[in-house]
Amino acid sequence: MTYSIKLLLMALVALALALFLARRVLAQAMPDGQFKQASWLLIASVLISFLSLKPVIFMILVATLFFFVAMDARDSISNKIAAFALFVVVFPPISYTLGNLGDLNQLTELRVARLGSIILLVPAALQISTRPAPRYPAWLMWTDILIVSYFALRIILNIPHSPTTLILRTTVESMIDTIIPYYVFSRGFSNREEIAKVLAWMGLGFIFAACVALFEFAGQRNLYAELQGIYGVTWQLTLRLTRGAYLRTQAMTPQPLVLAFLLVYGVTCTALLFKSSQRKAINLLVLGAFAAAVLTTFSRGALVGAMVAATVLFALRNGGATRFKLGVVGVLLAAVVLRVVGLDSVVVTTIGGMLGGGTAGLQTIDYR
């Protein structure tokens, strides 16, 4: 208990810094009072993470928090989506299995995202299904077909090799973990303001993750990964991953690479919410915190992702959607040409050299 409190105190310092930064870049994207609400929910998530001590208590408190949010949001679909997005980012990957239920064990493995899908997104999906359907763009229908076809193909391919109980479990699991979140996120927004609100709630989680990473690197100690010993659970093979003599930060994610890509997405998500009326200094400070946090993960693959994200963001802000689409097509065509003439290996080797990766390192990173 004493050690968890020490970790909690360090996490609260990171939280204070995150709230200071987030208020200045995200509050304008939230309706009145919502930044305060999101902040209290973030504080609650930190307290639950470090003080529950047992997986079953952790899951009970998380479920209670989700029920509170669901009751408070009630008729607001976007508020449920926003809370779900925040919680998925900021809670550690603790799980708990309900008893010895044989083939149902995997389905009854409780995780934060699964609880959130059941308690927050299922009611939101029911609300969406009962309201008058607007005219959705044609591309959304094709996305629906691809998503559903993928899971249908996955189940069909498993039929000859799997028992009926496994097929049923996989189907229900896919519905809860993927289909329902996709349905709600693709159809739950009525206007751009609701999208901005959800991005702002996620942005708060991303900024907190970046601050935790910076504190971990400064102290050369993981905060959330240490919870594995306290809870008696495992979500990675080692408690401490290093690159040379330096700690690879991972915050509340299962491993540094996951944190790195989470932060890369956080940069684009947060930058899209910057207002022209804001002071540029605070915007640059937030972006600098993200960049420094990504570097502390020592993940070469994520650096490539960061460069791609920065290029995409710059293109969208300065060239417009049409030019961006043409640019994507052009890059794809150029990649095909490089592949056909055999120059793709040269490009891969060059990128690896720029990021300090040798031949062995390139075997774990597929830049193509």
Task: Return the average pLDDT rounded to an integer.
Answer: 83
Total number of beta strands = 4
Major beta sheet, strand line-up: 1-2
Helix content: over 70%
Distance between the termini: 47 Å
Question: What does this protein look like?
Answer:
This protein has helices at 2-26, 34-51, 55-73, 77-90, 112-130, 138-158, 164-187, 192-219, 227-231, 256-271, 280-296, 300-341, 344-354, 359-362, and strands spanning 96-97, 109-110, 242-243, 246-247. The chain contains 14 helices and four strands. It starts with a helix and ends in a 6-residue tail after the last helix. Mean pLDDT is 83; it is low at 362-368. Helix 2 (34-51) runs antiparallel to helix 3, helix 4 packs parallel to helix 8 and helix 10 packs across helix 12. It has 368 residues and is mainly α.
